[in-house]
Amino acid sequence: MDLKKQLMLEVAQRILAEKILCDHCLGRQFALLGYGLSNKKRGEIIKNALVLQLIDKLAENETNLRVLTNIALSGNRLARESLERKNQPVPERKENCTICKDLFTKLDFYTKKVLDKLEGEEYTTFLVGAKITPELMEREDNLRAKYQITTGESIKSEFTRELGKRIMSVTGKEPNFDQPEITILVDLQQEKITLQRRSLFIYGRYNKYIRTIPQTKWPCYECNGKGCKSCNFTGKRYQESVEELIAAPVLKITKGTCTRFHGAGREDIDALMLGSGRPFILEIREPKVRTIDLKKIERVINRKARKKVAVSRLAFSSKKQVQTLKQQAEQSQKTYRAKIELEKPKTPNEIRQVVETLKNAVIEQATPSRVLHRRANLNRRKKVFDITIKQLDPIHLLAEITGQGGLYIKELISGDGGRTKPSFSSILECEARCTELDVIKIHYKDFK
Ligand SMILES: [Zn+2]
Ligand SMILES: [Zn+2]
C-alpha cells in the first residue's frame, strides 16, 4: 500500500474512533488525494478497508472495537456482519452523520424541489449554488482542525455537484460555471429554492423622430418616481422615452422583470437621432423566455413606436459588450445638423471665416453651464473634423458638423459665455444660437 493511502487510513481510523461519519463526509476529507472516485465511494472503501484491517485485532486495542462500532452505526453492512460473526454487540440502529446530519440522504428531496421550481423555465445551461448552515460549516471546520486535514473538499461543492449531476440527468441541460442561463440557489436552512436568470442583452440601433422624449426613463422631480399630482401619478417627468418604447414589447415577450438601457451616448431631448441610428444595448433582467425572434420583435417595436422611434440591426449581445459600447461611444465621431440663428446679419465671406477657422480645429471646452449641476467642471479638447455651412438668409444658417466624441455642439455654436473656444459666436463677434440640433450619423462599427 502506498504511503498516501496508509496515511489516509490512519487519519480515518482516528476520526472514526470518536465520530460517526457518513460515506460522503468521510470520503470528502480525502477528496484532494484523487483516485478518481466519488466522495461516497471513497468513504465506503475506506470504511471497508478499516473493517478488514481491524476485525481480527479487537483484542489488541479497545479503540479498534469503537472504530468498528462507529462504522456499523453509520450504516456500513460489512461492519455489522463482521461484528456479528465475531459475536460482538451490533448496534440496533443507524445513527445520523455527526457532520452533515445525513444531508446527503436528502439529495432526492432537493432534486425534486428544484425540478418543480424549474417547471416552465427556459434555459440551456445552469449552475447550482447552496447556502450551507453556519453550524454545518463549523462542524466540518472543527473536524479539519482537530485532525489536521488538508486534503478535504468543501461540503458546499460536494453538495452542489451531486445535486447538479441529478438535475442534469433528469433535464438533460448542461452545467455551466461561467455564464449559466439560470442559477439555482438552495438554502439549506430554510429548505428553499430560488432561481436567478441571467440577463438577456440585445444590441441594436435606434432612430428618434420627435423632439419631445428623452432617451431613458426620467423620474418626476417632485416625487422622485413615487407618483404625485404634478406627474399625474405616473412618477415620470416624460410619459414616454426611447427606452420604454423599445423595452415594452421586449419585456412582454421575454417575461422579464425590468430592463436597463445602455446607449452609446445620448442626444438631447429636443434633438432627433437620424441616419443609421445610435447603437444601444437593452438588458432584460430575469427573462423567463430566451428564445426570441429578433426580426419579429423589431417589427413589433417599429409598429408600436411608429413615427416616434425605430430600431434596426437587432442582435443578441452580452454584458461584456455593454462595456465596449460605452468605451467606443466616447471615441466615435458624430455628425450633426444644426439650425443656427444669428443676432446680426452676416455676409457669406464672414460665414466662410467660420468654416476656415473651425475645420480641423481643436476646441477648448469647459463643461457646459447647462449640465454643470450634474457633471463635474472639466476642461476638454475636442476636434472638429469637418464642417459645412449653408447660409439660408443673413441671420439663418444650416451647418453640418463632424466632431470627435464628446464635443458639445450647442456650445460650439453659442460659445457658452466664453466656456467654449473658439465658437461661432466668437468668430462672428455676435451671438449665435442653435435652434435645432439633430444627430445624423454616429461613426460606429456594429459588433460582429
Ligand atoms: Zn455526512
Ligand atoms: Zn411626481
Q: In the CATH hierarchy, what is the class of the largest domain? A: Alpha Beta
Low-confidence regions: none
Order of helices and strands: HHHHHHEHHEEEEHEEHEHEHEEEHEHE
Give the N-to-C terminal Cα separation. Answer: 58 Å
What does this structure look like?
By secondary structure, the protein is of the alpha+beta class. The protein has 4 domains: 3-85, no CATH class; 103-196, VC0802-like (2-Layer Sandwich); 200-331, Alpha-Beta Plaits, CATH 3.30.70; 334-442, Alpha-Beta Plaits, CATH 3.30.70. The protein contains 14 helices and 14 strands. It has helices spanning 3-16, 23-28, 39-54, 62-73, 77-85, 107-118, 134-146, 155-171, 242-254, 294-304, 319-331, 348-358, 409-414, 424-428; strands at 125-131, 174-175, 182-187, 192-197, 200-208, 258-263, 272-285, 309-317, 334-342, 362-366, 379-393, 396-403, 420-421, 432-442. The strands form 2 sheets. Strands 5, 6, 7, 8, 9, 10, 11, 12, 13 and 14 form a 10-stranded mixed beta sheet that branches. The chain has a 4-stranded mixed beta sheet with strand order 2-1-3-4. The longest helix is centred in the middle third of the chain and has 17 residues, at 155-171. The chain is elongated and about 120 Å long. The model has no long low-confidence stretch (mean pLDDT 94). Bound molecules: zinc ion (2 copies). One zinc ion binds at residues 220, 222-223, 227-228, 230-231, 235.
